[in-house]
Design goal:
The chain is of the alpha+beta class. The protein contains 6 helices and 2 strands, in the order αβαβαααα.
């Protein structure tokens, strides 16, 4: 992904960019040097998300933008817990899928101002959703059972 981003940026004439893969809790930049930080579909894997956000703030200039794109879970605590149970079964290295209000609060807790939000629903067949994560047969069966039990407690 990093090499593709670099190639795309340079193809489009953007030569003042840098791309790297790094530990979100220890970014390899000095303070206040980045104009833009993006995190796409990674936040729910961070073991210490507040540390990662604080690190993003550390490296950004005061005028910078931090763009966070991630999956969200329901606002209802019971639905959120059920969805996170499903997510953890499907992809064990996920730590937690936050609700929109939890994400906004986390951003605000480190001093960021949320000036725009957008959401979209990604429609995916269950078989494709399971296959995308490489779920084995037994886990897939368990997930299908949980998804169809009790009228979809996760609200999916």
């Amino acid at each position: 992904m990093v090499s593709e981003a670099y190639t795309l940026a340079h193809t489009r004439g953007h030569h003042n960019t840098a791309f790297c893969q790094a530990d979100a809790e220890a970014l390899p930049f000095g303070p206040h040097v980045c104009d833009l930080i993006t995190s796409k579909l990674a936040f729910h894997y961070f073991p210490h998300p507040q540390m990662a956000l604080a690190e993003m703030v550390r490296v950004t200039t005061p005028e910078a933008r931090v763009v966070l794109i991630d999956r969200v879970s329901p606002e209802d605590p019971k639905q959120r817990a059920y969805q996170n149970r499903l997510e953890k079964l499907r992809t064990p290295n996920k730590t937690y899928v936050y609700s929109t209000s939890q994400l906004v609060a986390a951003l605000q807790d480190v001093g960021l101002v949320v000036d725009a939000q957008a959401q979209y629903a990604e429609v995916m067949r269950v078989d494709d959703w399971l296959q995308a994560a490489g779920v084995d047969g037994a886990t897939g069966h368990t997930l299908l059972t949980l998804l169809t039990a009790a009228g979809d407690p996760a609200g999916l």
